[in-house]
User: What shape does this take?
Amino acid sequence: MAGHSKWANIKRQKAVVDAKKGRTFTQWSRAIIVAARSGVSDPAGNFQLRTAIEKAKAAGLPNENIERAITKGAGTLLGDASSLEAIRYEGYGPGGVAILVEALTDNRNRTAADLRAAFSKNGGNLGETGCVSWMFSQKGVCTVEGIVDEEQLLEASLEGGAESYEMTEEQTAEVFTEVVNLENLSQTLKEKGFKVTDAELCWIPSNNVEVTDPDQARSLLKLIDTLEGLDDVQSVTANFEMPEQLMAVMI
Assistant: This one.
């Protein structure tokens, strides 16, 4: 799973800048709407919804917005919940970097046009479905912080049905599992006393493109920032490696 950890490290290095912009309230609300629509509207019985609410609260989404989004998703409030659909877009960034974009939209044409413009203006191109997805596999990933004993983490991860784990930095690890086992793994780790700071579905690249040219790096990061700034976009994943020194200069 090394490919994902490299991408995760890049995301963490970008976090200082990204946090200043933040995801829009629209993005968080849509994630809650879809989560509520896909299962029960009670967070206690819907892991996806519970996770979306936790992330939204951490990002500062007001409680009234959260409640309204849950109500829309449950179908008890008129709104755009029924028209929202999840779509995955694929394309290439500068240097042939593969990029997956997951979106929630009520207008496919608008979203595709926005993405196409973002790619073309930043040295990339939006591709056809399947052009890069074969390079990725979807997994459940739990981020665990404050790890003191790695052996205990290993034991708890195995008990929770994990496939593997990887230390991404001191006292922080990512634990990988099958998509359907994410909730069980997260719960097991918490019961064993571990601090699970995130539990999400991620796309793991099977190979990576090394980016060392400053101009290429600048264009690539600008493309990712532009994509992440679109209201319809929920997540962006790419398969590149970048030296820490270069990343530090770029951001």
